[in-house]
């Protein structure tokens, strides 16, 4: 109403006011600076608005009658900034006088340079705003590109909870532009969430001024026309082969379960060719046990020589020294043997290097086997025992094969990969592996196999354990060994070709794109063009004619092309020249060919660009990622990834315009720029007959392999039955055939098959797939809607569903609860009944877990509500709703003997079945049961017999046969009967999903401030059915270890920043916040310290999720008087949430741990989950330090003092103190902390004092009887851990980092016994056992 009256006043006085305040008094025709804006309506100054001033007039914010006053207009006209803005507006220079201008071009260029170097640019408000302006400028340029696009291809991938989408836009003139469309925080899993995230990215990509940092009230503007154009122009999307990704592509182009068609014209859902190329090698190799074993011991496995050399700097030093004077194929020593388990192609380098440096690797392992008695020495000894001439030669062949596969993968591992080259590269690859392993040219062609054969031409003799081994022979490797290795590789070649046919089928559209390859003309051009015309809806005859007319012209321009995509550039050049003159344009029409080329240009084959973008973004903003909002991370990622694509002058100009729209005068700050370096020139010259480097070796090997493949023909078939062919090979081949058929079904759905390749059977399979897609998505939506209906209902909702029904009160554990229950029912208008069959709801102690089987059966038959006693009184508690099983069609077929023996049960069942039930109860002889069951539909009829009859011959092949009803005669319902009813339960009250009262089949565990996560080691040692839901830690080393070893479903970097929607429910929750704030060794700032306040996130989780068991651990200092309010606050908060608590300080030395480590533990169990009384564990006794130390070595010397002067003084002081007590430190073990000052000196006789993080990282304590510090394995055992538990840890962290984590962790036996007692009391486990120490 106020806005309407103000608008009416403006219309009435507008001409008078505008004539009073002109822009230029000398030129009235220039108009007035006083103007009105319609959407949203407001009055303001257009001069101040264009100059970027900050005021209500500049933002057209005058919207009331009180504001529309002549005096207000006059005040604004007299303002100095307004006068300068008017002058700048008239001159056309919006930066005149520097009034409220954007940052200078130099400042924006500096921000760009820093972003490209990976330096942080959002630490200050101004820098963050400038980065956003650059992203908005890029978005403006992207809008221009999208508006011109005739076809658009998408590239999408997901990593670390983020979805990133790249876009390739192709205009009508075949201009190609690729850029990042956007990024979205991924809130869940599944195809639906992926589709929703993609839709959000689409909208933001078409919206200007999205969430400018620090600027509220700026309206974002969605360009509806551009958004619709983007949706309808997408014709292809490239993803990896994950099921969610491909299903999301189908959802994007179909209307399923309420999802609107996001991209209605999407034709092709393409799978990443790079991932497919990896599977050519990985799957066939795993089909052969010998090849898999060879790869494991040479490159990939835990016992491999590559891992042995990679994960220890000391071992690398030893290896490098041996490699200097060993017989190796390279002049330069390489000691990096790193590989990534999730990237199979990364095994190529460690495998090849293990072969090239075999002699040095053997010498290194011999040294380790003699000098070390730990796990490293045993690993070296095992490898020496394993290696043979045959395995070494086989490894070299695998190295040649993996390098060939790696070269193929690298060709496909780029977004700009030319689909026209796919077929050519695959043919070259097949020729190469056939020449090497089918023809046997790997022994004569330069490469790993020839190098290994030359190395084994002279025997390598060494001692491994108790046997003398020899690798190689004087005359070279035996012919039988060569043949055996070749046979295995020939089987692999056959499987690899099957994998190629499945991953790159000849009928897919990508193979047809080879017709546009100008360097290698195809011999089936007409077939390819027919396939393209069919898939794209083009006229086949015109396409063939125009292609034949232009192809030779494009070949002429092929050599002149200078772009990275030579084929595309040559085609564009040929078409451009034909269109230059009207005569050639008319004589050589190309309109159909241009449409085909449009799809060729937009056609993608690899999502590697997205993966590389993820890596680049992580490199640039990773350290600040967990602090950034989704919007901030998106615009920073946009600038990081795409800043090199645009003209800097235009980009900065648009960024400054964006600044003027949102911000005022900035502060000035300029940094110097740093130039980039240049690459060194490659040199492949040989030095003394050796390659200079591994890179030059690989280049030479690939050139030789290509030359060998040049004469290889693919027309010859590999022998049908190979000597090394096994059932695993055949199974893998059949798997690839099934995959190829599925690809054919997809091609049929996308209309990429030729008419001769189509069939009614394929069309039927396509229809079935579409129906299943619709059916599955509707089922998911129905389930989601059903769960949402039952979720978070109140007491009133439950009462309304019970209606006029009655409530039955089951025996309560508490007499008080039962007495007050009837009055609570009266308050809600409900009536009580004494007959369970009449009840619509049952009040009980444990909803869903009633102990009386008869009441449970009645509840399931009638579909009753089971409510806890507290639900109707306080609204807190649990409610379980059973589906009425009696109204689901069931036929219960009982044998005569079962009916006779359990007559009481059957009578009870008949009496309690409700009216109009859908059950059939039938009794017959056991011989007739199977025939009777076949009269019903599948899944309807169930056979019930006695335990003696279950093996009866007449029941052979019968389904749904149940036993165990003999116990029902005693009044207890057997478990199979409950399974027979097939109840479906839904949570509908205030408790969380896992706040049930039964012993779970799998215990879900979560921990915060996890560190090494000793609790998880303890649970695994107890051999319990546990599943790790989540962990959290801010330390990157801990994160790497936990994700590599424990592998939780989700990992959180910051507990405080964690959002409720990211949390997963658990039964058992452990949180061990940083102890520095409460320790006597720290500042003892308590919750005044940020580390002490981190507990806030844990209590937020407990409040929202209510785990059944909560365990808190910290140092004894938290129980001191200074920090007593903290413990009291924790106690009150947990009590308010319904927990019962037990607090105690325990010493790990009483739990068979040779370390005196006192810790405070707080065990909290939900009241409603408490089954038994909690008892603190008493421990299993003491263990001496000497019992866990490594055997004494020759280098150990009793009584030796440390070299460091202060450390030696501390050791002497400790020895003198124990000497006064009659203990000789040279004869009896004394562990001394020599890294401290005299004030904090601690020592123990045959036991360790508390092993801190710092002390563990520096080698632990000084051992008096050995004259040295502790080894890594000794530190592990001192903390109660087993050596086998940490074997895999060294794959992710160094020995020093692992020791730090051990110093920060709770001893495993101590926390293990506490967890077992807590879970037993809470009903998570039903049996306790002695903790294995």
Automatic annotation (TrEMBL):
Keywords: Methyltransferase, S-adenosyl-L-methionine, Transferase
Source organism: Cladocopium goreaui
Gene Ontology terms: biological process: methylation
Similarity-based family: Belongs to the class I-like SAM-binding methyltransferase superfamily. C5-methyltransferase family.
Molecular-function GO term, any one: methyltransferase activity
NCBIfam families: dcm (TIGR00675)
Gene3D superfamilies for the chain: DNA Methylase, subunit A, domain 2, Vaccinia Virus protein VP39
UniProt key word Transferase: yes
Active-site residues annotated for this sequence: 1075
Lineage: Eukaryota, Sar, Alveolata, Dinophyceae, Suessiales
Keyword Transferase: yes
Identification of the protein by name: Type II methyltransferase M.MthTI (M.MthTI) (Cytosine-specific methyltransferase MthTI) (Modification methylase MthTI)
Pfam families: DNA_methylase
PROSITE patterns on file: SAM_MT_C5
